[in-house]
Each structure stands twice: as C-alpha cells, then as structure tokens.
Amino acid sequence: MCDEQTQKLLDLANGQRPPGSRLVIEQGSFASRLWWLVKAPFRTLMCLSLVTIFFATYFGFMLPVMWARTVWPRLYWFVEGKLYRWLQSFIAYWGYTAGYDVYEYGDDVTTYYRDERVLMMCNHQSTADVPTLMTVLQNKGVASRKTLWLMDVMFRWTPFGIIGNNHGDYFIQQGKATRDKELIRLKKHLHDVFWDRDRRWVILFPEGGFYYKRVESSQSYGKKNGFPHLLYTTLPRMGAVQAILEEVGPRTEDSDEPRERSNSKLKLLQDTVGAIREKKYVKDTRPPIKYVLDVTIAYPNGIPLSLATFGLGTREKCDIAVNYKIYDAAEVPFEDEEKLRDWMYEVYKEKDEMLARYYSTGEFNPGEKGTRIAFSWAKIIGMYGFWFGSFYAQYNVYSYLITSIAKFLLFPFSS
C-alpha cells in the first residue's frame, strides 16, 4: 500500500486535474476546443506517417548502402545514424507543435556530448519519457545519432524497435528467471556493438518500469529493508548499470592493452585505409564510458504526459523540465554490488528530493532558469517535405526496378 502523499499524487491523475495537466477538450473556450478538433485528424496523420511512410523510407535509404556495412562500415553507420536521428526528431516535433516545451536545467553537458562516452540514467514515469529524451537529444550533436538505448523486449517488433534493432539498441527481457542470462547477453552485445559502431551515450531507465506500476512495491521493499522511502521515484535496479560499467566502463591502467607502433609505410597505409573504412582507432583504443549522466524529468503537477498526448496534443500547453547531473564514472563503485546499490539509492534519494522541490516551488534549484529547446518551423516543414518527397521518389524508383526485373525474368516465357 502506498503512503498517503503518494496515493494523492496517483489519484490526482485520475481526478480533477490542476492547471497545466488538464485535457484540452475539458477546458478552455469553445473556439479552442473546436480548433483542437480541427487539428486532431492532421496530427493523427502526422503520427501515422512516421510509423508507415517514414518507416518504409528509412529502409529505402538503407538498401542502397547495405553493401557498405562490411566494406565501408563508417559510411554505413554515418548514413544510418543520420536517418535514425531524423526519425527521432519527428517524435520531438510532436510535443513541440502541441505546445509542450522542454526546458533543460542543471549541469552543462556540452563537452560530454561532443567528446565523451556517457551512461545516461533517467527516472521513468510514462511513455512520454522517451519522446522527452528524444527532444533533448536533438541538440546533443554527434551523441544524438550514436546512442545505444536499452528498451523492454516488448518494443522489439514495433516500427521503432525494428529500426532500433538495426541501429544496435538492446532489448532486455526483465524478470528474475532470466536476469543472469540477460546480463551476460547485454555484455556480449556491448562488446560487439559499443566500439565497433562508435557509440557515445548508453541510455537506460534503472527503475525498470513506470512509476505508477512500481511505486507501491518499491515503498514496501524500502520500508522492509531500511532503504530510502521515495515519493516521486522508485528504488532503481542496478543489474544493467553494473553490467554496462563492467563491460565498457572505466578501466584500470593494468587492463589497458598496449598498442603496437610501427614506422612501416605499409602499416601506415593500412592504418589510413582503416581510418577511412571505419574508426579503427576507436576499435583499437576502446575508449570507455567516463561519466554517468543522471537525468530527472518533471511533468506539471507530477502528472506525466503520454506518447498519445505528445502525438495528438490532448493536454493543454505545458512545460516539461529536464535536469542534468554529471558523475565521474570512475567514482561509481560498480565492482561491488552492495556499494553500487547504496550509491544508486543515494542518487535516487537526491533525485526524489529534487522532484519534491520542483513540484512545490517550480524550481529544481533556487533561482535557476531553464533553457528552452526550440525548433525552427522552417526545419520542421522542410523535414516533412524531404521525407514525403523521398518516399514518393523511392516508390517510383523501386517500382520501376521491380517491374523491370520481373519483365526480364518472365521474358523467356512471354513468347
């Protein structure tokens, strides 16, 4: 059973919502409701186009460069990464065009997305968390196309799951029965993908499920074992975090493999060709994750939006707050499970206190002003035009090729 304060928060989402969390259709003037009804079909088409037309267009672009996956992997993953980022931008546009502004607070992460490898941990409240992260990733430079997401296996065969599978994201099977095997599989996946595809940010939700589903069991478990009592988050699970840091995290100097140096002109030529084909120096040096980025998402009144809300704009305009806090990965005690648990619980205790402060004062830290993430309307319209135009062009090209091949194969039987 949840405590009284938590139960009030959960009941608030199903009762009379305060301003900032109300449905458009239930408040506002007749004109605003009518305007939402007019926009709804267009927003529905906008959402459907992403999982149908743009989904097909993505693979239409990837087919011509499929040869490069082995021969010239650097080219292949560059093209794939660009397309992957652009598809994510459409989900970011859903919220932006509906009036859901995202503001960034906390530590400046500029240097970390340019040059460093980072493990991102985020609190998990609803299906809106992923679109919110996709929104903040749009201004994170190269890191936005070189992410590795950890997602529940249930999303594997959705349109974005299929694209994520090609990108190198990992789909984790939750549950005690498969825990040990799953962590071994995760380590193998990281070993095969992280450096080979030059990934920068690994993104996961350590709570392992939505807040409203886990909060009761989390509070009960915490009370029983003397762990922190959390109101706005749930106690995180450390298995995936430990596996990630053990496999691609900080290394001791003794574990670093020395690189062979050669003055041979042939070796120099081979290295140059290797650098063109793939980032050979990344595979050779295997740069580890150096930082842990703790991300805290706060929704108005503690009532999260949903993916459907982002797409259809069913809630009134509001602001979503995202706070960043950077930790040095070398200071995370990931080699000791008990110490790692205590460290993560302390991080989430601080996160919970920060959310309590935000919900009561509207600020994570006193006097701090957030930075609004804005998109150019010209870019939004241009992106839709580009992808619809590309689909039309691909449809004609592939139709012609398929028809020509069919005619060629059937020609001997036509006489």
From TrEMBL:
Report TM segments. 42-67
Which CDD domains does this UniProt record tie to the protein? LPLAT_LCLAT1-like
Keyword line: Acyltransferase, Membrane, Transferase, Transmembrane, Transmembrane helix
Record bears the keyword Lipid metabolism: no
- Superkingdom of the source? Eukaryota
Which InterPro entries does this chain map to? Acyltransf_C (IPR032098), Plipid/glycerol_acylTrfase (IPR002123)
In its UniProt record, a GO molecular function of this protein is: acyltransferase activity
Report whether Membrane shows up as a keyword of the record.
Answer: yes
Where in the numbering of this chain does the Phospholipid/glycerol acyltransferase domain appear? Answer: 118-234
Q: What Pfam families does this protein's entry cite?
A: Acyltransf_C, Acyltransferase
Question: Its family?
Answer: Belongs to the 1-acyl-sn-glycerol-3-phosphate acyltransferase family.
Name of this chain's protein:
Phospholipid/glycerol acyltransferase domain-containing protein
Question: Which organism's genome codes for this protein?
Answer: Caenorhabditis elegans
